[in-house]
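User: Structure tokens for this complex, please. No commentary.
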Amino acid sequence: MAMSEQVSVSQIPAFHEIYADQVKLDDREGYEGFIIPAEFLVQFAQAIKSKWGYDFLSSVTAVDYFPDMMEVVYHAYRSLGGPALVFKVQVSREDSVVPSLVSVFPGAELQEREAWDLMGIRFENHPDLRRILMWEGFAGHPLRKDWKEPYFEEENKPFSSRWPEGVAVRSETLNPYGSNVQYPKDFDPETWTPEADESLYLGLKSFKENDGLDTEKIIINLGPQHPSTHGVFRMAALLDGETIVDLKPVCGYLHRNHEKIGERNTYLQNMPFTDRLDYISSMSNNFGYALAVEKLLGIKPPERADYIRVIMAELTRIASHFMTTGFLLNDLGAFFTPALYALKERELILDVFEAASGSRMMCNYFRFGGVFQDLPEGLLEVIRDLAFNRLPKKIDEMDALLTENEIVRSRCIGIGVLTAEEAIALSASGPVLRGSGVPYDIRKADPYSIYDRFDFDVAVRYHGDIFDRYLVRIEEIRQSIRIIQQAVTQIKDGPIFDGKSQYSFKVPPGEAYGRVEGPKGELGFYLVSNGQANPWRYHVRAPSFINLTSLRQMSLGEKVADVVAVLGSIDIVLGEVDR
Amino acid sequence: MAMDEINKAGVTIPPELQGQIAITTLDKIYNWSRSNSLWPMMFGLACCAIEMIITAASRYDFSRFGMEVMRPSPRQADIMIVSGTVTKKMVPQIVRLYNQMSEPRYVLAMGACASGGGPFKEGYNVVSGIDKFIPVDIYIPGCPPTPQALLHGLIIMQKKIERQKLSDADWYKKDVDNEIPVPILGPDLIDPRKYALIKEQTHKPAFQVVEEVQNGDE
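Assistant:
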């Protein structure tokens, strides 16, 4: 890597001086990063990748600065660690065209499709620019500020129209169709022909090699209703016999409009919505969102709250990894017995969450500047018992039962391989990245909260196959137990909240990106505030969505039965994939 | 079911046969066996699906009530647990799955989203409850409902089945067609049962539509 010697990992080069003719510093108040002209973008991306070591393009999203312009925002990192390099491209709202970065950073593929789908930004030279969350034929780009949903009432919550004169009005009564729909003027449903899946299938590369046999490749669809897909996910696979020749993920079947709803909500109202992103690890989601808003507000939680946060986030990681491991075994055909072992431990952790927050799954526990309430009496003892006695034993048991198991080994070793270079290029994160030999863990690479106080190792394995991703998760459970053991020993009494306790408050204008190492990978929240009580832009960098970019690479050349296991090893949660 | 509960036909059983045979009505034995072998469809939509899996796991264990056989195929399932947010993109598939289930079939709307849209109701891709398209037997509140709540809903479902009568069961009648027309993905979700309404609204002059909405308020 040709990184100039005087630049340390944590320093961001002054690109506005290096490329003084093209690059400008983003000097709006509360903003960071650089503004790049669209025609210079690809060149700039190549330069930061090859010259400056920014090889990991983490997040691509867009902001609609209605009525002035569209802005595409990129967050890039060095895979060695350090803070984000933020760069932006500004284009007009009417003709939003930006060159695609897929040729430089293949990991941008799905994210650029999402920006096209929801924001209407056309990425030139994108290999497959189709809608991804909505369907082809849908009218409009819903995240544009001038696009209103059928149940639109007011720009921002709380809606005064909800309770005129103390009586609730249902949204259905306000809509002329009596349901959540709207159609363009003069639309005739009888002459409408729905878009078939042709464009999807045409995107699959046909198998070019001719081996002299007159054989036909077949397309099969797995999902959206399929027991292997962990929810409503769909894969369109092109098969030659039983071998995968090409594969495309199809998502959006659980697209719940998280971001549009989030932009109408107040900041605090979004907290319970983040629970429902990756609904297996709600505490981690709370964490990322709280960090982003705290950055905007410029506040920090008191020490005890920080410890509670870390304990909860690590318990979440343990619960999530247990569950993933159990369900990976499901996918391998060991139906439900391993999952039962895993779920048993998860239940014990959910009991802790229920005691602390009042809810098993949807904890809604973090607040800006602390947590919702202190741990009830005796709960710390329960956690201590889990961390010192119960969980270490159970993870050893699971390890002993599975790791040396002959069937597990022969189904997992060497299957679904992703090399380190591919993993970085495809913007993979979390256990997928670390299973491929890249020791990148945000808790170490760009520490947040109080993770710098704990002694733990980054779990990493080097073969990039299903088995290594499984091993990384087992190792991470062990490391999380270590962190909890230290945290419950160090935690002291004190206040747990140091913020505003209103449900609606104004947030200083600016942008913030809060990221945490969630169980699935890098979970980031990109927020833009215009000084109001509601976020102007609220974007979630969803790790399981972006990890899906590498699904095709892992599956090529494998048998169709292995794709199920490959998908299980990526560990997706559809609430987060589709948002 | 206890012996005295099943012997309801009003026939006296000779003492030597008591405890060995039972005389009951067809309705009763038919409903008894059906309600205690409800096979749910293995079909998860969102967050609620996780709680559904937990209900199937060892701590709550709904196989105690005859539901341990979850089938991914709609042909083999009796009850569809709609466990999560129903989106416009997914609803054609759900309706198709419902149509493929064989009678008698039941639908259980699990959680706030499946019952009425829930926290995501205002979203542009969200259907305000699955009952806009398919008939629902039991609604379970909660976001997500706890496993106990799901178990309660399933037990209520069993009670409902026990009250049904063969003589007026829909699925034995001749001219009843319960096929639901599958929604179409257009510029927005199109319900084929609402063609006339859609055409009427989209072909109105623009100002009239506005007026209509305002009148609807009153």
